[in-house]
UniProtKB/TrEMBL annotation:
Record keyword Protein biosynthesis present: yes
Pfam family of the protein (one): RRF
GO BP term (any one): translation
Record-given protein name: Ribosome-recycling factor, mitochondrial
Domain of life: Eukaryota
Gene3D superfamilies: 3.30.1360.40, Ribosome-recycling factor (1.10.132.20)
Keyword Protein biosynthesis: yes
Source species: Aldrovandia affinis
Record localization: Mitochondrion
A single GO cellular-component term on record: mitochondrion
Signal peptide boundaries: none
Length: 274
């Protein structure tokens, strides 16, 4: 019977001459063993499934994805926002983040300089070097106009015989400096009494340190404000997500430098108050 069916199917195909007329063959059944068990969930011989395409509109744009790829992969604590670290090369056409960082670094450097020059308990002739005097040629450091010497631990003398015409202006500059000095003028000689290091004097210096710190923080805010203003002017052709990410980076930089200012203030206050 099987031979007859085989001959009949072969003759039928030969007479039709078309592969499409052939019915699909019945699956072969092995008589040498039990039928193959197919595990639940699909054919075990099937290839890997293709990943499902992301829904339209989901996920960041390629450029933004690169920005996000630079995020620090740290597990954030409860209530703590994840920090970002933008690749500056990807946004250099939008904003100069390196320039912003340099400006903020300059603010911190100036604060350290103010602390060392104006808030020292130990007095030396070099303590007056930062004071500038108004002259007809502009502002000139006082140590370029007069010879400064230390007569005693409580007295500094500025000899203005080289530029006697600048004596009054030099005394005024000393009086208006942040060192709270009260100079006395005798001809071309300026005597500068140094306040004794009392508890009150230490506390006044600590208050002055606080003023310097607040001024530095204000300068930081100005740098941040300038950067954000420039960023918003560059919105054309830049996605809102990118703008927000860059703005977050700028704020993060501001917070970091503000924390550095607080550390400098705490260290200086401890040094002054003892």
């Amino acid at each position: 019977m099987w031979s007859f069916l085989t001959d009949f199917c072969g003759a039928h195909l030969a007479s039709d001459g078309s592969e499409s007329a052939r019915s699909p063959p019945a699956p072969a059944v092995s008589v040498r063993g039990p039928p193959r068990q197919v595990p639940a969930g699909g054919d075990c011989e099937a290839g890997p499934r293709a990943p499902k395409p992301s829904p339209a509109g989901k996920g960041p744009a390629p450029a933004l994805a690169r920005l996000y790829a630079t995020k620090k992969s740290k597990v954030k604590a409860k209530g703590q926002q994840a920090k970002v670290n933008i690749n500056v090369a990807l946004v250099e056409d939008i904003i100069n983040l390196e320039g912003v960082k340099e400006d903020m670094t300059a603010v911190l450097t100036n604060l350290k300089s103010d602390f060392s020059r104006n808030l020292s308990i130990r007095t030396s002739p070099g303590a007056l070097d930062h004071i500038t005097v108004s002259t007809k040629d502009g502002r000139v450091p006082i140590n370029q106009l007069g010879q400064i010497s230390m007569k005693s631990p409580q007295l500094i003398v500025v000899n203005m015989t080289g530029f006697p015409e600048a004596t009054v202006a030099a005394a005024q500059a000393l009086r208006e400096s942040s060192m709270k000095l009260n100079p006395e003028v005798e001809g071309a000689i300026i005597r500068v009494p140094i306040p004794k290091v009392t508890r009150e004097h230490r506390e006044n210096l600590a208050k002055l340190a606080k003023q310097f710190s607040n001024k530095a923080k204000e300068s930081l805010r100005k740098v941040r404000s300038s950067a954000v203003t420039h960023l918003k002017k560059s919105k054309a052709g830049v996605s809102e997500d990118t703008i927000r990410l860059i703005e977050k980076q700028v704020q993060q930089m501001t917070d970091s430098f503000t924390a550095d200012i607080d550390k400098q203030l705490a260290t200086k206050t401890k040094e002054l108050l003892g």
